[in-house]
Amino acid sequence: MNTPVPRLVGRFLSPYVRRVAVTMNIYGMQFERLILSAIGDEKEREKTNPVGRVPALILNEDETLIDSAAILDHLDELAGPKSALIPKSGPRRRKTLYQLAIATGAIDRAMAANAERRRDNVDEERLERLLRQSANGFAALEMELANNDYFGEPKPGQADVTIVIGKSFLEHIFPGTLLPDKLPNIFGLSDRLELLEAFSNAGID
Questions:
Q1: DSSP 8-state assignment for residue 28
Q2: Which of 37, 41, 55, 56 could link 10 by a cystine bridge, Cβ 3.0 to 4.6 Å?
Q3: Among 62, 71, 61, 64, which residue's Cα sits nearest to residue 23?
Q4: Does residue 99 lie in a domain region?
Q5: Nearest to residue 151, comparing CAs of 200, 102, 82?
Q6: In the chain, what percentage of residues exceed pLDDT 90?
Q7: For the chain, what is the domain count?
Q8: pLDDT at position 61, please?
Q9: Nearest to 35 by CA among 10, 62, 16, 15
Q10: Across 75-89, average pLDDT
């Protein structure tokens, strides 16, 4: 019996959908796409996740994974500990999870800012605060990268994937919020990784 090809739900505009796609590309895992908007397509999204969020990864007719962290955990398990982008244990795992917490926090702040500016009565103070906190997160990650080539030294790991995708997302929706002279290491990392097929084949759409 043939194993069905997983279906990834969501657009690559979502950094959480995109990081799943890029991770699967890095691992050489096939997937199909079910392109649903994170803003529209509510009823369709609720068929795969009752709270209507993306991404979801439909493994087969009986099993669907929701939430990008849970999906990445499954993908790491399939890839095996030697190839997994998040270390299985020890100080390197704790460091990666710390960096991912900052990165996803910065992404969430950017998403909240994007939602705020869509309101009829925009709270400018809240909007400024959300963008400041998002930028603060990337500034902290810039210090984490320091003089290393990758967060996942000696090769890119999940922190690299998520941080680069988060940076590209924030640049896309709020151009000028992040500046290359303030984040030279992260911008350099982004320039290198976004050229890889794993990233370019899952470009923002």
A1: T
A2: 55
A3: 71
A4: yes
A5: 102
A6: 85
A7: 2
A8: 87
A9: 10
A10: 96
Where residue 47 falls among pLDDT bands split at 50, 70, 90?
A: confident
Q: How far is CA 37 from the centre of its chain?
A: 16
Q: Are 189 and 103 in contact (CB under 8 A)?
A: no
- Tokens found for residue 100: 């991912």
Compute φ and ψ for 142, nearest 5 degrees.
-60, -40
Q: 15, 72 in Cβ contact below 8 A?
A: no
User: CA-CA distance, 87 to 90, in Å (whole number)?
Assistant: 8
Q: Which CATH number goes with the domain that contains 61?
A: 3.40.30.10
- Per the structure block, which two tokens stand in for 185? 């290491």
Instruction: Provide the residue range defining the domain that includes 65.
Output: 7-79
Of 60, 79, 98, the residue that ends a domain is 79
Residues pairing with 60 in the sheet: 63
CA torsion, points 183, 147, 188, 104, in degrees to nearest 10? -60
Are residues 14 and 67 in contact, defined by beta-carbon separation less than 8 angstroms? no
Q: Is residue 182 part of a domain?
A: yes
> What is the pLDDT averaged over residues 73-81?
97
* Angle value at C-alpha 59, between 53 and 61, nearest 5 degrees: 95
